[in-house]
Amino acid sequence: MIIATTIAEVRAQVAEWKRQGLTVGLVPTMGYLHEGHASLIDKAVSMCDKVVASVFVNPTQFGPGEDLETYPRDFKRDCALLTEHGCDMVFHPEVSEMYYEDAATFVEILSDMPKQLCGKTRPIHFRGVCTVVSKLFNIVTPDKAFFGQKDAQQLAIIRRMVRDMAYGIEIVGCPIVREADGLAKSSRNTYLSEEERKAALILSQSIKLAEQLLADGERDADKIVEAMTKKIETEPLAKIDYVSAVDGVTMATVHDVQTPTLFAIAVYIGKTRLIDNTIFE
Fold first, then answer.
1. Do 15 and 126 belong together in one domain?
2. 208 confidence band (pLDDT: 50, 70, 90)
3. How many whole angstroms separate alpha carbon 173 and alpha carbon 43?
4. Which range marks the domain in which residue 71 is found?
5. Per-residue pLDDT reduced to its tens digit, 230-260
6. How far apart are CA 256 and CA 253, in angstroms?
7. Is there a domain that residue 237 lies in?
8. Which one from 37, 92, 125, 255 is the annotated catalytic residue?
9. How confident is the model at residue 77 (pLDDT cuts 50, 70, 90)?
10. What is the torsional sign of CA 17, 22, 27, 28?
């Protein structure tokens, strides 16, 4: 696997692949990779001739007081996983490679999409996400890019950005990967103590409750949200950020379940903020 640290290296290699008529897939990550990321690599390998993964903890999507400095990092381990799953190149730049000190340009969606769910308490987050993903698209020029459904709002926003900006890149959403006990895979799970790890199961349990209510024919989104909220509130270590039902495309709040409806939650377990979701399609 090629390890590239500069934009020039990536562009030169991708240009060579494209001269050979090969398709290129991109998997953007912030590193500390787990089985969820591996599933994205596997999907990319199955759909593209060459696969590029980025490992970059993007500072512009972290707000004041968030975990930029403490976000887990282990690039050697990341490389081992990427190599095992058939990634062809990893792009691992320094912040100075991605952002000029006097950078003054950002990519931002001005609709209400980034103001819902996670955007309510992380107001600059999706501006940073759109900016770095846009830069990665310009650097790698992939044919397809792969994102996890766990970050459902991010996935919807990137799809809108790609549409609005006419990138011509196919965005492929991949299912949530879970631990054996149901907890959604996340790099931030490493922050949890043993007691908090057990408490965190309340997230997937509330998601399963929503899925069961939907399977039983419940179509009142407010009732499902209320049931999920009550379930989470039974866990003393859990503090709800949000429990919401939104349109799966626009992220607008819905009260009646139609297709697609996203049921999304963000919950603090101790000091660690975790997210999970399910979508009715």
1. yes
2. very high
3. 10
4. 2-174
5. 999 999 999 999 999 999 999 999 999 999 9
6. 10
7. yes
8. 37
9. very high
10. positive
